[in-house]
Amino acid sequence: MKVSISRVKLFKACRRAYELKYVYGLKSIQKADALVTGTNYHEKLEALYRTGDFDSSDLSRESAMATAYKKYVYPRFRVDSVESWESCPLGHHVLIGRVDGLSEDAKLVEHKTTSLDPAEYVFNLQWDEQILAYMGMTGTREVYYTICRKPTIRQKKNESDEEFFNRMVEWYDVDTDRKIAVTLLSRTDEEISTFMHDLELTVDDMENPACLYRNTSYCNCWGRRCEYSPVCLNYDPEQAYVGFERRP
């Protein structure tokens, strides 16, 4: 079985949501705001490291964030390898993942966006399953997290898009360390070995179609509603649902 860590995490969170997404191929057409922000921001940083610049003509929040990154992080933090696919055996399975990059000193690099102060957000990264899996795949035991806080200001009445964009960029010039930062975290061989063993057992469990039960505590977890809640209880594979598409 070929799996990604995001697939495993959904299986562990709610096996019914996993079934709807990966067995039936059902996906929500509308993407969560946090996912859109993260994707757009990552694309701009990838362009920055590949070409030395990125397109900021959209005057978006993500462009303002990437501009702050270019100003405060890029000059002193070199990433040699950008957005690469990695894989490794996991028992009789294959684990795959796409890492954000590798630093010049051969450490993993992950770019994160958050609404929190970077110092607070670091606490949430201590046992990030995604990076533990990436460490298992690459043999690396250290990771640089670049953390960019999303601007908390809002566009004023009669303020042009360009004026608002410039104000978002300037927002990072005050209390910069509380808005954008780079931190290094590490894990031991024993911790990674234990994690990969447990991960293999979970993937073994994923091959059992009889265990795809619903976890009701996931429905409104972390203050957000599960994307599959409108179809979860009475899903019919033969029926089309508004707001969803079925992919192979």
Protein described:
It is built from eight helices and eight strands, in the order βααβααβββααβαβαβ. Strands 1, 3, 4, 5, 6 and 7 form a six-stranded mixed beta sheet that branches. The protein is an alpha/beta fold and 248 residues long. The chain starts with a strand and ends with a strand. The model has no long low-confidence stretch (mean pLDDT 92). α1 (5-13) crosses α2 (15-23), α4 (61-72) packs parallel to α7 (161-171) and α6 (129-138) packs across α8. It has helices at residues 5-13, 15-23, 33-51, 61-72, 118-124, 129-138, 161-171, 189-206; strands spanning 2-4, 26-28, 79-90, 93-103, 108-114, 142-149, 180-186, 244-246.
Note the topology:
Layout: E1 2-4, H1 5-13, H2 15-23, E2 26-28, H3 33-51, H4 61-72, E3 79-90, E4 93-103, E5 108-114, H5 118-124, H6 129-138, E6 142-149, H7 161-171, E7 180-186, H8 189-206, E8 244-246
Parallel strand pairs: 1-4, 5-6
Antiparallel strand pairs: 2-8, 3-4, 4-5, 6-7
Number of helices: 8
Low-pLDDT windows of residues: none
H/E element order? EHHEHHEEEHHEHEHE
Q: Indicate the overall shape.
A: globular
**Major β-sheet annotation:** 6 strands, mixed
Strand content: 15-25%
Helix content: 25-40%
Give me the secondary-structure category. Answer: alpha/beta
How big is the Rg? 20 Å
Whole-number mean pLDDT? 92
Could you give the distance between the termini? 16 Å
Structure summary, number of beta strands: 8
